[in-house]
Amino acid sequence: MSRFILALVLGVILPVAATWAGNSPAVAEELDAEESYVGDAGTHGKGTATSIDENCADVKFVVSPQLSKNFLLRIGGEWQRFSFGVAATAPVPRVLQQVSAVIGGDYQLGDRWLVRAEVQPGVYGDFEGITGRDVDAPLVLGGAYLADADLQWFLGLRVDVRSEYPVLPAAGVRWKFSDQWTLDFQLPKPRLEYDLTDRWQLYLGGDIEAGTFRIGDHFGSDHGQPKFNGAMVDYLELRVGPGLSWKITPILTLEAEAGLMPYRDFDFFHAGADLRSHNAPYGQLVCHGRF
User: Fold this and answer.
1) Range of the domain at 186
2) Percent of the residues in the chain that have a pLDDT greater than 70, as a whole number
3) Phi and psi dihedrals of 4, rounded to 5?
4) Within the chain, how many helices (H) and strands (E) appear?
5) What is the mean pLDDT of residues 216-245?
6) Is the four-CA dihedral 254, 10, 158, 82 of positive or negative sign?
7) pLDDT of the residue at 19
8) With 60 as the cut, is the pLDDT of residue 220 above it?
9) What is the pLDDT of residue 25?
10) Disulfide check for 265: which of 79, 143, 177, 236 has CB 3.0–4.6 Å away?
11) By C-alpha distance, which of 248, 247, 150, 251 is closest to 201?
12) pLDDT confidence of 15, banded at 50, 70, 90?
């Protein structure tokens, strides 16, 4: 996969509200929980042909105390787990998982600029015999320019020294171009949104799941391919489909979507192997809480 595509899909863009300054509570809390299923997808690589389905769960909780007029601290944690249904002989891990802390902050520069720095130290691997080599600390740097309440521009940079591409940039925009339509092109979940009412919204969106993980020391030998022992894998998955969002209360939103997973990639870049999946249906439920 080209450097350009990886940079595009792995960059992390800073989400921000145009009214951040002067309207945040003394302590804000964010809870995001997601469960999804991807159906059987044909998967091919060097000497490998199999079919894989997938369950994915992701829970993230962040507390943001406002320490000064212009600075919000961000402290929390995230757990994400990909579980793959795959034949025992295929050189594909059954689990890719992360358990990490979230440490960072948001700082407002003047009336127009907001910047974020965030690091997520934790364990990223298949959780088969955890060692110090499973520990990683990806860094996210982002900035937002608040043109007005309807238009914001974003820049981001993701740094992960264990990845094949350790520094990845991206850019995006949020533009409310009519009373009902909003283009929210922020990776990893770009969307085109249509407000049915104050509480119901339709959207057409994309979803990018990605990360870098270390595989167990005996994984390759157990599958007859020792070159995979302790290998690093850059994981990438793309999804696209329509969804429905319901704001149950001002602080709680539920979303449901379904569509197509057109591309998935297990890139064992040190071992010189790529396993790619194509074209499977998916469904997803998401809960967002903002307190």
Assistant:
1) 3-290
2) 91
3) -60, -45
4) 2, 17
5) 94
6) positive
7) 34
8) yes
9) 55
10) 236
11) 247
12) very low
Dihedrals phi, psi of 219, to nearest 5 degrees: -60, -50
Q: Is the pLDDT of residue 9 over 70?
A: no
- And the tokens for 67? 């320490």
Integer angstrom CA distances of residue 85 from 41, 50, 276, 280: 10, 10, 15, 14
Amino acid identity for residue 231 in this structure: A
Q: Indicate whether 4 pLDDT > 50.
A: no
- Residue 153, token pair as written in the block: 């521009």
Instruction: Determine the length of the chain.
Output: 291
**DSSP characters over 181-240:** EEEEE-TTS-EEEEESSSSEEEEEEEEEEEEEEE--TTHHHHTT-GGGTT-EEEEEEEEE
Average pLDDT of the segment spanning 97-120: 96
Spatial neighbors of 222 by CB under 8 A, at least 6 apart, are none
> CATH code at 68?
2.40.128
DSSP secondary structure letters along 55-82: EEEEEEEEEEEB-SSSEEEEEEEEEEEE
Strand 232-249 vs strand 181-185: parallel, antiparallel, or unpaired?
unpaired
What is the gyration radius of the CA atoms in the chain, in angstroms? 20
Task: Note the maximum CA span of the chain.
Answer: 60
- The reply to whether omega before 188 is within 30° of 0 (cis) is yes
236 contacts 10 by C-beta, under 8 angstroms = yes
pLDDT score, position 200: 98
Q: How many separate domains does the chain show?
A: 1
Q: Which two tokens stand for residue 170?
A: 């991206």
Residues 218, 223, 229, 232: is their CA dihedral positive or negative? negative
- Per-residue pLDDT tens digits for 60-105: 999 999 999 999 999 999 999 999 999 888 889 999 999 999 999 9
Half-sphere exposure (Cβ direction) of 212: Cα atoms closer than 13 Å = 26
- Write the CA distances from 168 to 156, 183, 221, integer angstroms: 8, 23, 33
